[in-house]
């Protein structure tokens, strides 16, 4: 079984003691990554895309528990091997995202859009960001690639999982969820949105979001798993549900759209985070999509982490097409997503997979690769 996290981007999501993928979960995480990319490009295209982050964290907790808990319990799988494996999985695409964002920004500045503040931001934040650490001198944790804050907290949560969550009984995981929700709910209600976490002043809420969803994913992983996952309309409904909730149908006159901060949006976000995501995670882990949807779901799952890691670098060029060249907004969004998916697929095949194989060979004496091993 691969140690698949969602933000950590492990591909594929594999069922325990089986070579069969959780194809529905692959499709769901791909749709969620698309929603995040569209929200950052033009929020009206996916007005609730930012709450996909909480689904990512819950899926990471779910799959990492399944992949590692038994090994940790029976064979004493230690903190260092676990964190080394997580770093190998997270860092290559994280690094690529940072480098592409830096190159895009420098290209804009060289093309006449010089900005001393931006130059200072790169110079001051790049040394720590390259180490996967937040910048100590900017308001944003990762100002060059803003969405990378979630990858940092994914790494923090992985450490929390192997040092704390693995040791907790069922009720201990419930307690973590309750305490995290206690810290999260009032802030979301006050700010009228759960779009919180990218800035230094927001780190306590970011930590609460991460801890709640990781512990929730671990709780779902501890529920009895079916021997056979039926294939059919329930799996397809899971894909439609997450797309609808994240607002991907808004452009077609459907879906839920609350484009400004209001008390309603805060309650909507909390309903998704606290109630809807765990329901969809349970359903997605127990029902598979129809055969017709299996291939696109697998593809979206394979490229989802790369899409999340690199999409920020493509936003400004395609906004230039929309705002300065005059390409229609919908067409610009389609071209942006098409390009982002293509770049993501190339990043996975020609960068991420080879680099991870090389790193795994170095640390494992050239033995098994995490991409082909049945358990890592």
From TrEMBL:
Checking Pfam families in the record gives:
Acyl_transf_3
**What keywords sit in the KW lines?**
Acyltransferase, Membrane, Transferase, Transmembrane, Transmembrane helix
The UniProt transmembrane annotation reads 50-69, 90-110, 146-166, 173-191, 203-221, 233-256, 268-287, 299-315, 327-348
Chain ranges of the Acyltransferase domain: 24-347
User: What GO MF annotations does this protein's record show?
Assistant: acyltransferase activity
Q: What is this protein identified as? A: Acyltransferase
């Amino acid at each position: 079984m691969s140690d698949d996290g969602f933000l950590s981007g492990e591909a594929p999501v594999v069922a325990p003691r089986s070579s069969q993928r959780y194809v529905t979960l692959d499709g769901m995480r791909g749709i969620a990554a698309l929603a995040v990319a569209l929200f950052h490009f033009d929020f009206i295209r996916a007005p609730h895309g930012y709450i996909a982050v909480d689904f990512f964290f819950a899926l990471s907790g779910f799959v990492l528990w399944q992949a590692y808990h038994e090994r940790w319990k029976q064979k004493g799988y230690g903190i260092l091997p676990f964190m080394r494996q997580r770093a190998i999985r997270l860092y290559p695409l994280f690094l690529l995202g940072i480098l592409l964002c830096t190159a895009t920004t420098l290209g804009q500045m060289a093309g006449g859009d010089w900005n001393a503040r931006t130059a200072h931001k790169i110079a001051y934040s790049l040394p720590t960001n390259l180490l996967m650490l937040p910048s100590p001198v900017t308001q944003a944790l990762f100002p060059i690639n803003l969405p990378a804050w979630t990858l940092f907290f994914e790494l923090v949560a992985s450490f929390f999982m192997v040092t704390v969550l693995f040791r907790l009984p069922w009720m201990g995981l419930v307690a973590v969820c309750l305490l995290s929700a206690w810290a999260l709910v009032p802030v979301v209600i006050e700010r009228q949105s759960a779009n919180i976490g990218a800035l230094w002043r927001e780190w306590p809420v970011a930590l609460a979001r991460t801890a709640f969803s990781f512990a929730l994913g671990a709780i779902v992983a501890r529920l009895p798993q079916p021997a056979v996952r039926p294939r059919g309309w329930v799996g397809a409904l899971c894909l439609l549900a997450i797309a609808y909730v994240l607002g991907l149908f808004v452009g077609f006159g459907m879906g839920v759209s609350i484009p400004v901060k209001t008390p309603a949006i805060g309650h909507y976000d909390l309903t998704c985070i606290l109630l809807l995501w765990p329901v969809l995670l349970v359903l997605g882990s127990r029902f598979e999509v129809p055969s017709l949807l299996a291939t696109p779901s697998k593809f979206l799952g394979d490229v989802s982490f790369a899409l999340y890691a690199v999409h920020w670098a493509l936003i400004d060029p395609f906004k230039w097409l929309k705002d300065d060249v005059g390409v229609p907004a919908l067409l610009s969004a389609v071209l942006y997503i098409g390009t982002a998916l293509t770049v993501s697929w190339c990043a996975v095949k020609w960068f991420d997979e080879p680099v991870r194989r090389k790193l795994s060979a170095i640390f494992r004496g050239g033995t098994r690769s995490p991409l082909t091993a049945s358990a890592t």
